[in-house]
Amino acid sequence: MWTLDAAGALPLWLPLEPAPRAIAAFTTRRGGVSRAPFDSLNLGRSTDDLPEAVAENRRRVLAGLGADPARLATAGQVHGARVVEVTAPGHTPACDALLTRVPGLVLAVTTADCMPVLVLAPDVIAVVHSGWRGTAAGMVRAAYDAVRAASAAADEIQVHVGPCIRACCYEVGPEVAERFPAAAVRPVEGARPRLDLALAARLELERAGLPAGAFHDLAECTACRPQFYYSHRRDGSPSGRQWALAGLRDASAPSGARV
């Protein structure tokens, strides 16, 4: 479903078969201008990176997707389960998912281990930031339900999970593990259990009615691949941020035009 041009000047995860009316992407840490420890495609304004470097990195990503930087909408993430519908560009505080039905807007959330999720229908899209707190609180389900309620083509919804920390690396305490289905928690003899956020999300969405074939997972671990991804768990507070982003194209725009 997705492909990465790892050797390209701006390596992005892109759909193998792009939807005619949508753009969607997951970024890596490569192809930007930020210096260590944020090298190089840091997209997080909340970090201690140079603001001008972050701005240039964002410009590069949006230009690479044919998107208009002036039409960007972002979320002020708080590790909750609130979905906000947006109709104009700008920053929306205190939410972890954005939804839109407006062609031309590009929605983005930042992550550095938390799970980025795109919920895509032909006429509605949502972008989601979901760490363990948000996932336990039903963040991904809330976004799916919101898209399903807003879409005239709810049976065509597709859910995509991008790079995040995986069960191979995500140690959690028992107080966190007990908030998830047993199937999403991997016991480790003599060590703390490991949590599979993507599996927890898939199980919840399947209970909500999402067909198994409509759930797609890159299965990329941010903590395992320092050459491609930022990881707060691995690197600590100097970590940069990736983006998950999506937008609906204007149906009247010619092929290759900006969203």
Total beta strands: 15
How many helices? The count is 6
DSSP strand (E) fraction?
15-25%
Query: In sequence order, what are the helices and strands, one letter per element?
Result: EEEHEEEEEEEHHEHEEHEHE
- Which sequence of strands runs across the widest sheet? 1-2-3-15-8-4-6
How many whole angstroms does the radius of gyration measure? 17 Å
Shape category: globular
- Count of individual domains: 1
Describe the protein's architecture and organization.
The protein is of the alpha/beta class and 259 residues long. The protein has a single domain (21-248), classed as CNF1/YfiH-like putative cysteine hydrolases (4-Layer Sandwich), CATH 3.60.140.10. It has helices at 51-64, 132-136, 139-150, 174-177, 197-207, 232-235; strands at residues 2-4, 12-15, 22-27, 72-75, 83-85, 90-92, 97-100, 106-111, 115-120, 125-130, 158-161, 185-186, 194-195, 215-217, 242-248. A seven-stranded mixed beta sheet has the order 1-2-3-15-8-4-6, with no helix packed on it. Strand 2 (12-15) and strand 3 (22-27) form a beta hairpin. The longest helix is centred in the N-terminal third of the chain and has 14 residues, at 51-64. The two termini are 21 Å apart. The mean pLDDT is 95.
